Fold these 2 entries.
Entry 1:
Amino acid sequence: MNVIEVKNLKKEFQIKQKRAGLKNGLAFLLRPEYKNIKAVDDLSFSVSRGELLAFIGPNGAGKSTTIKMLTGILFPSSGHINVLGFDPAKERQKLAYNIGSVFGQKPQLWYHLPAIDTYNLLARIYELDQREYKKHLAFLVEAFEIGDLLNTPVRKLSLGQRMRCEIAASLIHKPKIIFLDEPTIGLDVVAKQHIREVIKYLNEKEKVTIFLTSHDAGDIESLARRTIIVNFGKIIFDGPTENLKKNYIKSKIVELVTEDPIEDFNFQGGKIIEKGKFDIKVELDISKNSIDKLLSFAVENFNIKDINIFDPPLEEIIADIYRAQKL
Amino acid sequence: MNGVYALKIIKYFEVAKINYFNSLVYVINALSRSGVVVIRIWIFAQLYKITYTASGAEEISGLTVAMVVWSLMMTQSFQSSGRPPVSEIIDEEVKSGALAYSINRPYSYILFHLSGYMGRGTSSLFINLLIGAAASLILVGPVKITLFGILFGAVLMIFGRLLDFLISFIIGLAAFWIEDTTAIAWIYAKGQMVFGGIILPIALFPDYLQKIAEFLPFSQLFYSAARLIVNFDMELFQKFILIQFFWIAVFSALAYFIFKKGLKYVTINGG
């Protein structure tokens, strides 16, 4: 069953264009010039209940604009959106009871007050039964490990601690869908890992549908079963995350460990990306060369002790997709 | 059914409460604002003492020097407790992108900001009045304040604050269209200064100007309540409350209309 349905969604903005200089500044006051920007250009997709979807793209691709239209904050220029049976633009408040959102760079907790004050306020805003709220809060406190942080003013929390508290705040009212816009931005490795575990838990155990945007390939690889890539407001990939690797991998990384020191490695078509005395990493363009040829070359010229073959990191694959779109 | 309505009302009470507690964090700010009120009253006390002595009058338009200073103290205290203005908060919400949260909750955006405004101003209102009253007492002595004056003045003060909120809210909504609302907020502040009884009680204006100023919304924000408290007059109360209701009706309709219209134009910075 689909919980989000988007058909032919478009959003255009008018942005003022001001040229530098006093003369241009005065001319701009009299006759402002505008440029039309297509932030979202004919998007169509759907999301099923319980899905964990990564919605990714380079900066300015239209991700956040799409999320803001799905949550009813922005009005579409044209197209159709249905989220949990509601039209977000017309039924924003009714929808708000059923969805949660976290905008990674924007705080929702009261900065000078402890997080518990914001939670209590949100419980009232969402008109929750107080007994049910206390029970659910106890669960969130345990899941997010924020028991010790509840009574500390938010300004005193580290970024990782604050993000856990922020996500917990968006779950106070048990939303059916949660929109996470860059939830791990600026976090260290451990804090990122913690947030990912919580997201996974929410999706798997609590069956919350998760709509995630992130620039962190680690988030996508470890969390999302399905990925949509947007660029210039259009969808350029929509499918299982593992297919991203299958369909878009153009190279393999071959690591060789030898018995003898490696002086020269003159294999045409391979790019040396790392070289030690007894080991070497070669990136091979598999559309032009086969791994078989590389291995034959290695066996002929060296006493091979170990061989490892890797896919390039997802981050690079995604970067290649973005770059290909720009050309 | 009553329970459902109670839940809807409680949420706004809670918004006011959290704003009240948050404002306590800025108690130094509130105290410094009270300090500014005291300095101004001291200047006005000197100014009006000289003016009254020069004119040789005990009373001008029914107001003694003490009444003028007390009324200015109250007008300034009411005005100062409305800081920061709602226009500044909405403007900042649009600029920082925090609007993505504040606009997307199951409440009325207007009532959410109204509750916040009322909650935020409560602590500084009492601090201002307490410190301002002590300073006025030292500078010009007591004035006769009646219970009726306090009660009816409090009614005008509440509606005056509502009116201030509505105008400031509308200025804030301009941020949905324009980049910066500070210029409009500046004009509004200057209007208050000239016609709002902040530096010169409207009772001291020439007759024709007094009539115009009393009908303008600026005088109904903070001045009308202060004027009634220092010198209670039932007829004046009836006149002021009717003018307040008129402007509240006008600005409520405008706020509702502009907000509905503005929602379609809203853009949120930072993606």
Entry 2:
Amino acid sequence: MIGLHRSLAVAAMLLGGAAAASEVTGSAGPRSLASDIAAGRDWTTAVALAERIKAGEPMSVFDLRTRDEYERFHIPSAAHATFATLIDAPLPRSVPIVVYAGDSVRAAQAWALLRVRGYRHVAYVREGLYEWIARVHEPALALDATAAERMAFERLAVLSRYFGGRPRLDVPRAEIPAGYWTTGDDRVRPSMATALLVAAIRRRGC
Amino acid sequence: MTGSDSAIPSLAIAFALGGVFGWLLERAGLGSARTLVGQFYLANLTVLQVLFSALVTAMLGAFWLDRAGLLELGTVYVPETFAVPQAIGGLLFGGGLLLAGLCPGTSCVAAATGRRDGLAVMAGLVIGILVFNSAFDSLERVYASTPLGTRTLPDLLHLPSGVVIALVAGAAVLLFAAAERQMGRRQS
């Protein structure tokens, strides 16, 4: 029995030591980053983020646009951050981190930066703030919507109202981006600049 | 899958895990009040050994399952800290454990094996739940006071989680060795 106890103690020490070594030596090397990207663990959708915020899941959300853009409009619960903040600030390790920007490039760069810093649970919003506005803040339902689209819209409308958004009904089909109601690789492609959408929201006072 | 559909397998898994947990507690001898109270007199350190073993196993398992991509640790719920109510709760729990010789889990195990003290503690547990719930309105201010958010050792120590895991595993092994020595000294 003593022999078994000793073996288990040695195993615990080895696994603990390996855990420390894996983080001290920076496990998020190119292989780890490539594996996350290949598995799609690097990004999240605006709707998934909204559902997690609504469910009260603890997480840190960072807006990487300029301070001025952040002040005009940002995802609820998000804090403003710059690349300098992400490089130096001691961010909480116990909660997932989600970053977004005006586009996916800057947010993806921030994701890589945080992963290299050793933060494991990081994701970026794939189409940035545009995606939040288009899907969560102002989900749109086409005039000739199908039953499946109406059902999906109802779910988004509830989410949208929770965040003080404005679901849009009877939108001409031409204004709805291709792939709007699909997920996976069928991405929503921003058809307008995010800044224009934010300006429109501010004009309406919402 | 709707919420009610997913609740059934979740409850079944919880039931199975609860059964295994109880069986392991009983196998470890924690259904006996003497074993539990022996902890406070340093006469029997089984509780420390069993619970610390479970803690280290879960900690290492969660970390490496996450690394293997089989568990997303970032989505695992970490309970929030409320300093004052949790300190009061800890004192009440400790006092109750010292008085009864059983905690909620071990009282179920003791009751299941026919021990009357286990049944008495379970009755106390149910009465306590009822009293707490009926007095909740007046206790709510204390219950929700001093919220500190989600706190973990890596965040408090500003250390990577892997380093904290190594420190806790090392401390556990030292504690196990000290406990073995202490129990050996008692027996000789």
